[in-house]
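Help needed: design a sequence for this.
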């Protein structure tokens, strides 16, 4: 058989990966063999066996339904607030929509300073995960979905503002330049110049983020932000495996439904 001409490169790459990853695995105390320990296997079996049969009483299913709706509402309200914050920040941070560069083609120092400040704000907002924001906000506003809504709004405002600006910056600037050079305000330049070309990509990313917000809403429930996650946390603390099994199935259906809605909207945009 002919020798692979790239075998040296593949061997070196594999060696480098092992050399780089091994210290990280050691530092992370990664010990997967613990899963096969007799005590761990017994604990796993006892926990999983309590999943059968799943809880299915009418009262419990009604509670799960209300919690699931609360999760969807939390994600949707948080995304709406995030977009309200991200759109004006996008107007400020997108150089393509800069008014100060009209005529000279260069952004003024004051506008550049403002733009860098807004970029720093977006970095700050998205660098703190929504789970951490929720953990902090629960201490301020108390338990419940309010903390989750604000946490999603803060983190996703930073994410949406950054990605919106990048999408607009990568689009054709000729329409925006024509509008701005003829005296159009930057909001009109965004609506009639940049959006027609970038609308599909912007909406697709927004839908994807809404889908992520639903998953995040469940996770934030574990720190007291309400919704389905908080009910799951309570059932886990009580070792109620049957209740947890039902909520896990509902969670899978919830994510699958969000994914289906997302795929349908993307198909329509395409």
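Sure. Designed sequence:
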């Amino acid at each position: 058989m002919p020798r692979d001409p790239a075998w040296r490169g593949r061997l070196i790459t594999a060696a480098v990966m092992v050399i780089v990853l091994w210290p990280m695995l050691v530092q992370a105390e990664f010990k997967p063999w613990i899963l096969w320990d007799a005590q761990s296997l017994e604990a796993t079996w006892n926990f999983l066996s309590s999943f059968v049969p799943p809880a299915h009483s009418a009262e419990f299913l009604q509670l799960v339904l209300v919690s699931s709706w609360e999760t969807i509402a939390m994600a949707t309200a948080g995304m709406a607030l995030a977009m309200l914050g991200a759109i004006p920040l996008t107007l400020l941070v997108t150089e393509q929509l800069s008014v100060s560069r009209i005529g000279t083609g260069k952004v003024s120092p004051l506008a550049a300073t403002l733009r860098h400040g807004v970029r720093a704000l977006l970095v700050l907002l998205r660098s703190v995960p929504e789970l951490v924001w929720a953990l902090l906000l629960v201490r301020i506003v108390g338990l419940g979905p309010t903390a989750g809504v604000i946490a999603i709004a803060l983190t996703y405002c930073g994410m949406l503002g950054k990605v919106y600006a990048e999408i607009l910056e990568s689009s054709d600037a000729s329409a925006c330049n024509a509008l701005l050079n003829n005296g159009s305000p930057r909001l009109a330049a965004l609506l009639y110049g940049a959006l027609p070309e970038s609308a599909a990509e912007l909406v697709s990313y927004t839908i994807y983020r809404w889908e992520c917000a639903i998953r995040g809403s469940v996770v934030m429930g574990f720190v007291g932000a309400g919704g389905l996650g908080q009910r799951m946390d309570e059932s886990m603390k009580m070792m109620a495996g049957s209740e947890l099994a039902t909520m896990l199935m509902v969670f899978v259906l919830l994510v699958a439904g969000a994914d289906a809605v997302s795929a349908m909207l993307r198909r329509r945009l395409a």
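DSSP finds ten helices and no strands in the chain.
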